[in-house]
């Protein structure tokens, strides 16, 4: 029984260890299509603070997060801050339906093959990577609650000042 408990604890905590190992490392490059069919790369955002958000239109916390992120983008977007929403595990049709109900002014990219989510070892939705101007992952957040917003803004503001 003790072995099973230890194994369960290890499996539960392993994703957290994997996430923390990514902080301080270069953000993995990607090349994905946006909703208009244009190819977008992470490299095209170099020199900006990037809030990279993995989400899906069926994900309840994601639905709550998106309007809050839109407000943050409108507040800080003219200061060198970008948000990239990477839609996973959903059809283009489902994403477009979501965006009709919740219009967003920041980039929404389609990870239909899971290449970006695999590169970032994304296993929960939403998962956010806050990337510094230098392309280094500075913070990782899993899940969403309205109480996250002050922390997001604080972390982004600190990186914008660098």
Give a verbal description of the structure.
By secondary structure, this protein is an alpha/beta fold. The protein has one domain (2-160): Glutaredoxin (3-Layer(aba) Sandwich), CATH 3.40.30. It is built from 5 helices and 7 strands. The chain has helices at residues 2-22, 60-76, 92-101, 115-119, 149-160; strands at 31-34, 39-41, 49-55, 81-87, 107-110, 127-131, 137-142. The chain has a 7-stranded mixed β-sheet with strand order 2-1-5-4-3-6-7, sandwiched between helices. The chain is globular and about 40 Å long.
> Helix- and strand-based class?
alpha/beta
Helix and strand sequence: HEEEHEHEHEEH
Mean pLDDT over the full residue set: 89
User: Could you tell me the number of beta strands?
Assistant: 7
Radius of gyration: 16 Å
What is the subunit organization of this protein? Answer: single chain
Terminal CA distance reads 50 Å
Question: What's the short version?
Answer:
The chain has 5 helices and 7 strands. By secondary structure, the chain is α/β, with parallel strands linked by helices. It has one domain (2-160): 3-Layer(aba) Sandwich (Glutaredoxin).
Topology, element by element:
Blueprint: H1 2-22, E1 31-34, E2 39-41, E3 49-55, H2 60-76, E4 81-87, H3 92-101, E5 107-110, H4 115-119, E6 127-131, E7 137-142, H5 149-160
Parallel strand pairs: 3-4, 4-5
Antiparallel strand pairs: 1-2, 1-5, 3-6, 6-7
């Amino acid at each position: 029984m003790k072995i099973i408990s230890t194994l369960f604890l290890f499996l539960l905590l392993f994703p957290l260890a994997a996430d923390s190992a990514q902080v301080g490392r270069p953000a993995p490059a990607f090349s994905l299509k946006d909703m208009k069919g244009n190819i977008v790369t992470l490299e095209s955002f170099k020199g900006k603070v990037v809030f990279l958000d993995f989400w899906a239109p069926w994900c309840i916390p994601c639905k709550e997060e998106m309007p809050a992120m839109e407000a943050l983008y409108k507040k800080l977007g003219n200061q060198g801050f970008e948000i990239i929403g990477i839609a996973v595990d959903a059809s283009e049709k489902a994403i477009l339906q979501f965006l009709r109900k919740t219009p967003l002014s920041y980039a929404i990219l389609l990870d239909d093959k899971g290449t970006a989510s695999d590169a970032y070892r994304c296993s929960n939705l939403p998962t956010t990577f806050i990337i510094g101007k230098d392309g280094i992952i500075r913070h990782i957040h899993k899940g969403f609650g309205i109480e996250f917003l002050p922390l997001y803004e604080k972390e982004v503001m600190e990186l914008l000042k660098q």
